[in-house]
Amino acid sequence: MAVSSDFLSEFIIRPNPEDPRLTEVVRGVDQTGAAVDTAVTVERPLTLYLNGQEIVTMMTIGDHPEYLALGYLLNQNMLRADDNVTAIQFDEELDVVVVRTDRRTDFEEKLKKKTLTSGCAQGTAFGDLMERFEQVALAEDAVLRTSWLYALLHKVNTAPSLYLAAGAIHGCLLAQGDRPLVYMEDVGRHNAVDKIAGWMFQNRVPPDDKIFYTTGRLTSEMVIKTVQMGIPILVSRSGFTAWGVQLARQAGLTLVGRARGKRFVALSGEHRIVFDADPTYSEEEAARHRRKGARDED
């Protein structure tokens, strides 16, 4: 299956590995002792305030701080879908982002209860992870065509990215059909998810016909966030956890993992999959695009 390079114009947002803030060159030695210069990913702290209250300090690559702030608050159930956000203020010198709303907020008690998630970069979830989970009804008429899946896998693996430039990064993609819409990267997959959630909130993008792709494992955290975002289909190049599968089945989420090249495994919501492509004519994944997920790592 050949996909033209023209697909890059389909992205509304995609990684910019040329951004000088995101990488730096470090001198080291290789396995022979020879001097080498290599690009490494830069991470920096970002402190988030909701109105007058400090919520959390996150380690992030620093792009799209406004979307990250909104998405984090949404996925922590601190921001409601019907909230009126009056301002988002980012101070690059102080590494601070402030979200202001019409509604008064006070999460002192919620902040006392936190769960250290399984995500890389030690994501922290405050309060009850399942607060809205059981209330979400995912679209039953959503469809995942295997022809879309194969096209999306090729597009996300060949698009310019910080991962290919420097590594040490996770990526998440929001798609509609076989079109990639928004591709976000960060040192923690939870940050990449939250950036997409924030973009969807700010642009009032409906989730019912969307597909969510991640390079990270299909853990309980990933399933819960996808369900809370209202997206009915979650795909990963990596593997599953047992609780992630259990929660996906409980919510009726279509869960597809180990999706690389022409191969994938679906463990929940198989009824949404339309097998309209012959895997025989799909390309295997090129070695240069393989990520850690090829070994089911994170």
Describe the structure.
The protein has helices at residues 65-75, 108-112, 146-158, 162-166, 189-203, 220-228, 242-251; strands at 23-29, 35-41, 44-50, 53-60, 85-91, 96-101, 114-116, 124-126, 144-145, 170-176, 179-186, 211-214, 233-236, 254-260, 263-268, 273-274. The chain is α/β, with parallel strands linked by helices and 298 residues long. The strands form 5 sheets. It has a 6-stranded mixed beta sheet with strand order 11-10-12-13-14-15, with helices on both faces. A 4-stranded mixed beta sheet has the order 4-3-6-5, with helices on one face. Strand 10 and strand 11 (179-186) form a beta hairpin. Helix 1 (65-75) packs across helix 5 (189-203) and helix 6 packs parallel to helix 7 (242-251). The longest helix has 15 residues, at 189-203. The radius of gyration is 19 Å and the shape is globular. The model is unreliable at 115-122 and 292-298 (pLDDT under 50).
| Cα distance spanning the termini | 28 Å
Helical region count?
Answer: 7
Mind summarizing the main beta sheet?
A: 6 strands, mixed
Proportion of helical residues:
10-25%
Low-pLDDT residue intervals, each spanning 5 or more residues: 115-122, 292-298
Radius of gyration: 19 Å
Tell me the structural class: alpha/beta
Query: How many distinct beta strands?
Result: 16
